[in-house]
Design brief:
Layout: E1 2-4, E2 7-9, E3 15-19, E4 26-30, H1 33-38, E5 48-49, E6 59-60, H2 65-71, E7 73-74, H3 80-86, H4 89-101, E8 109-110, H5 112-121, H6 130-141, H7 146-156, H8 159-162, H9 164-167, E9 174-175, E10 178-179, H10 183-200, H11 207-215, H12 220-223, E11 225-227, E12 231-233, H13 237-251, H14 258-269, H15 272-277, H16 283-293, H17 297-306, H18 313-337, H19 348-355, H20 361-375, H21 383-396
Helix pairs in contact: 3-5, 4-6, 4-7, 7-10, 10-11, 10-17, 11-14, 13-14, 16-18, 20-21
Length: about 425
């Protein structure tokens, strides 16, 4: 393999492949060019150009790949059951290709016999490693229209094999003639909205923001309740969903580092800005949102804006206008308080040195009191104000400073944090 002007060029000998029934490990043998093309995933990537002198540049297209490419068709060279049985990952690749190649002018479709084979062979997905599945999912999530891919995976039963939590969002339950929103379709719309907003704002596609959009309502099936006289509720689904995120990531062998925590945070907070739209926006509420979201506040706001979906254009327009008011309020508070990278002005080390005490619950209490006082607007976001407030609360808790401990004459105490 060599890289040339941004392209990767691989040189391989023509070969044939065979697979064991219960494994993706293949047995390779030398073969002819036609046999090599026959083992390819799809007709559109089973084409070749001759580099031989006598017919240099001749197209070798035994399965009509050019025709299918022009017609926007995804089909397999062999019977789909054989192609997919040999390597079940090809079912996901077919779906990804259809989503990746589709444009506003031409939608790529998978031939009916391939869709039927996917439904029949969905359980073959179980022999695949989770890493390979996630690799395909990530590529789907970075296409312009991933909703198409996830819709097809759900319809064929593939999604249920590795992400049943998402598939459970599908469908509407009705009691006393009252149904709820179809949450699977809503989720895919939110995902597409996120991608559209990224483009409008000139942002690069953020894979983990796309995962947050995909999982933002994942807790709804568990939290769904019907309340007579009120209808359907999903109270606490954001908390439930946030608890599910690490388990989903672990099951799919995805990273459990800051990327997972980022997705978990956005799932947990995705209702907060919407709640501010529906009530009077106070500085305190905005401060707490800025504090909890931290440096991810912009991504959270984009996700929440994408979460505004309705078949009623007037309702959507009203919510978006209110949402802009919340963003303006956030900008005002942010400019005044600089809370995006908020850190408590009072550290545990400072409290221990000031009062000559060992680590204890009282230190955490005092830090929490200071944090709440700042976020509620009781005191300015400065060390001086926080220090004065903390000393008063400490006295109420019975803490006394030994001798002259504390800061005297404006000298800084080791371990002291300044805003």
């Amino acid at each position: 393999m060599l890289r040339y002007h941004g392209m990767e060029v691989e040189f391989v000998g023509a070969r044939t492949e065979s697979y064991n029934r219960d494994s993706r490990k293949r047995i390779e043998e030398d073969g002819t060019l036609e046999e090599d093309q026959l083992r390819r995933d799809f007709t559109i990537n089973a084409m070749a150009f001759s580099l031989n002198e006598e017919d240099y540049g001749a197209l070798v297209d035994p399965f009509g790949g050019i025709r299918d490419l022009a017609a926007g068709i995804i089909r397999t060279p062999l019977e789909p059951e054989q192609t997919y049985s040999d390597d079940p990952l090809r079912m996901l690749r077919a779906i990804r290709f259809a989503a990746r190649l589709s444009t506003d002018e031409q939608k790529f479709t998978i031939v009916p016999e391939s869709i039927a084979a996917m439904k029949t062979m969905a359980e073959r997905m179980q022999i695949l490693s989770k890493e390979r599945i996630v690799e395909e999912l990530n590529k789907m999530l970075l296409t312009d229209h991933p909703a198409m891919a996830f819709q097809t995976m759900e319809e064929t039963g593939l999604l249920q094999q590795f992400l049943p939590e998402l598939a459970r969002l599908k469908g509407v339950e009705t009691v006393d003639g009252k149904g709820h929103k179809e949450n699977f379709t809503h989720t895919l719309q939110v995902l597409e909205n996120v991608i559209r907003f990224e483009k409008e704002e000139g942002k690069e596609p953020n894979l983990w923001l796309h995962w947050a959009a995909l999982l933002h309502d994942i807790g709804k099936p568990i939290s769904k309740r019907y309340v007579p006289g009120q209808g359907w509720t999903f109270h606490g689904h954001e908390v439930t969903g946030a608890r599910m995120v690490p388990k989903i990531f672990e099951k799919l062998r995805m990273p459990l580092n800051e990327k997972m925590k980022y997705v978990q945070k956005l799932v947990n907070l995705h209702l907060r800005p919407i709640a501010l739209v529906d009530e009077e926006v106070t500085d305190s509420a905005v401060r707490r949102l800025l504090f909890d979201a931290g440096e991810d506040i912009d991504d959270l706001m984009l996700l929440c804006n994408a979460d505004i979906t309705s078949k009623n254009p007037a309702k959507v327009a009203k919510l978006r206008r209110n949402f802009e008011l919340v963003k303006e309020k956030m900008a005002q508070v942010e400019a005044k308080d600089e809370l995006r990278n908020w850190k408590n002005p009072i550290t545990g080390d400072y409290i221990m040195q000031l009062f000559g005490i060992e680590p204890c619950n009282t230190i955490g209490q005092l830090k929490e009191m200071v944090k709440n006082a700042v976020l509620d607007g009781e005191i300015p976001y400065t060390f001086e104000a926080a220090d004065e407030y903390m000393r008063k609360r400490a006295a109420e808790l019975g803490l006394e400073m030994p001798g002259q401990a504390g800061h005297d004459g404006g000298q800084e105490i080791p371990g002291q944090a300044r805003a």
